[in-house]
Amino acid sequence: MTGCTDTPVLKERGQHEVFCGLTGIIWLHRKMQDAFFLVVGSRTCAHLLQSAAGVMIFAEPRFGTAILEEGDLAGLKDANEELDREVARLLERRPDIRQLFLVGSCPSEVIKLDLARAAERLSAEHAPNVRVLNYSGSGIETTFTQGEDACLAAMVPGLAATDAETLLLVGALPDVVEDQARDLLAAMGITSVQVLPGRRAAADPTVGPNTRYALLQPFLGDTAAALDARGATRIPAPFPFGEEGTTLWLRAVADAFGVDDATFARATDAPRARARKAVAAVAGTLRDKRVFFLPDSQLELPLARFLTRECGMQAVEVGTPFLHAQIMADELALLAEGPRIAEGQDVEKQLDRVRADRPDLTVCGLGLANPLEREGLTTKWAIELVFTPVHFYEQAGDLASLFARPIRRKALLAAGRGDAPVAVAAE
Ligand code: SF4
After folding, report:
1. Secondary structure of residue 217 in the 3-state scheme
2. Residue 218 and residue 297: Cα distance in Å, rounded?
3. Which tens digit of pLDDT belongs to each residue from 100-112?
């Protein structure tokens, strides 16, 4: 099966229209319960975090912004001293913090600060209670899911070494979904399972030459490279979206750990059947509808594979901010020939193609969705796919529903206006 393996990739280099990597803090801070994310940035960065993570207003947050003003440009020494003071104040107030991430951003005054050296200096000062790490969430360097990649990649060099044979799951999933994955693996007899990132610093995984790792998210290329550099081996697989993706992902892990067919079937038959049934209940709304992915989350190729193969949709164009040839090899092979595959962004050109194609559903960032809706196009916000639990069997039906909902809503509105007779499949 070669699918889109040999499809020429349209490389786009132009204006971007996506959130920056700071956005990843919104889900990372929920996952890593004794970590704190200190954004070294401007008021814009603070506003982004506050509005994107508005829900945290009632909780003691595990992220904040050290705002650098124009005046801080006067002297980097002052800026470093100010940062050290902020960190000392924070750690004194919050003795529960075990990992502190200094997160860089794009203002020029931040770029001039050497946050890697600051992290080293502060780590030495606050060891052993707190490990201070740094990564960039700058919009110049990262799109929104790359923030997680940068964060996890920054953690890898500091992970303790091991020679033990273990499976490492890589990616920050909601705890309930991570537990489902562990249960499925345990049912196959794979119990030596670690996760990056751990829920707490003390639970961060160990890594070494006998570590085999499976990516849970497709946007973790730098983290994969960092794990490879520690001697770990990636288990190549499609991503666990939908019944088929989950089964192929589990099968690849099972093969790597010598699980026999009967055990695999015992562990997966029942949840597979549930997932198929849940997807089938929604697929009627999606069948034969045309979907266009603008580049946003790096989830586009696996989702296009799920929507075309399990829900009967037709992909018109699948755009992705980055196409990691090795990590995406299995996905490209599964995706049937037909759609244009695009890497990078040139937003005006892409919008022209959306207008020319008039797809039934356009998956795009928040900033593009409203204008497209005004032009009569139906859209799905890509960011919801990262905030909503969508991995593994039990979420397969919910994943299909996320795409079916805007199509059903559009059909109901059209029916209400009497624009056209519409058949809406029951969910
Ligand atoms: S990191 Fe850059 S793009 Fe992101 S909010 Fe701050 S200034 Fe804006």
Report:
1. coil
2. 9
3. 999 999 877 777 7
Output the residue whose Cα is nearest ligand 1's atom 5: 45
Annotated binding site: 20, 45, 106
User: Tokens for 274?
Assistant: 């549930």
Domain that holds residue 199: 166-265
Phi/psi for 135 (5° steps) reads -155, 170
CB 333 within 8 A of CB 2: yes
pLDDT at 181 over 70: yes
Which atom of ligand 1 is nearest the CA belonging to 41?
6
| Mean pLDDT value of segment 18-24 | 89
- Summary mean pLDDT of the chain: 91
The DSSP 8-state label assigned to residue 68 in this structure reads P
**Do residues 78 and 107 share a domain?**
yes
Last residue of a domain, one of 207, 235, 265: 265
Residues 39 and 136 in one domain: yes
41 CB within 6 A, ligand 1: yes
What residues are designated binding site for [4Fe-4S] cluster? 20, 45, 106
Using DSSP, state whether 395 is helix, strand or coil: helix
Please tell me the distance between residue 20's alpha carbon and the centre of ligand 1 in angstroms. Answer: 6
Residue with CA closest to ligand 1 atom 6: 45
What's the CATH number where 192 sits?
Answer: 3.40.50.1980
Share of the chain above pLDDT 70, in %: 93
Residue 413 token pair: 């509105």
If asked whether residues 185 and 83 sit together in one domain, one would say no
* d(CA 408, ligand 1 centre) in Å: 35
